[in-house]
Amino acid sequence: MADGELTKRDFEALARFRFGIRRYLRFSEETVRSHGVAPQQYQLMLALKGFPGRDWATVRELAERLQLRHHSVVELVDRAQAQGLVERAPHPEDARAVRVQLSGDGERLLGRLSALHRDELRRMDTALALPTFEDGDGDDRR
């Protein structure tokens, strides 16, 4: 087999991993919708709570984390704020920027939803394990 070619086992591993990702994403979408939240709103809340070193972020930082355009994040924050999930506050060092942070209701909802997501990931365990691939010598590698 030529170096770099994929084996049947490699394709199966990729397909199994892709299936696990899709199963998890479907679970997530259905779970958050059943709690009255759009999937992107959950992702926004998680990005805020999980932001490194602090519990708030700017719209620019959120756009990077969510891989969305700036104006899309502004609209997402507007909708989440209208639902009482997030709040805007003045940025402590940059008067041109705004801090986005979770509200008390957003914190509580995120806690419930994230616990459900954690439990689902525990149930899925090996379905989301990174696949291993065969190299040209038949050895497995990541």
List the helices and strands and how they pair.
Blueprint: H1 8-34, H2 39-49, E1 56-57, H3 59-66, H4 70-82, E2 86-90, E3 98-102, H5 104-124, E4 133-134, E5 140-141
Helix pairs in contact: 1-5, 2-5, 3-4
Description:
- It is a single chain.
- The protein is mostly helical.
- Helix content is 56%, strand content 11%.
- It has five helices and five strands, in the order H-H-E-H-H-E-E-H-E-E.
- It has helices at 8-34, 39-49, 59-66, 70-82, 104-124; strands spanning 56-57, 86-90, 98-102, 133-134, 140-141.
- The strands form two sheets. Strands 1-3-2 form a three-stranded antiparallel β-sheet. A two-stranded antiparallel ribbon has the order 4-5.
- Strand 2 and strand 3 (98-102) form a beta hairpin.
- The protein is elongated.
- The mean pLDDT is 90.
Using brief descriptors, characterize the structure shown.
mainly alpha; MarR/SlyA-like; 142 residues; HTH_MarR-typ; two-stranded antiparallel sheet; 5 helices; MarR family transcriptional regulator
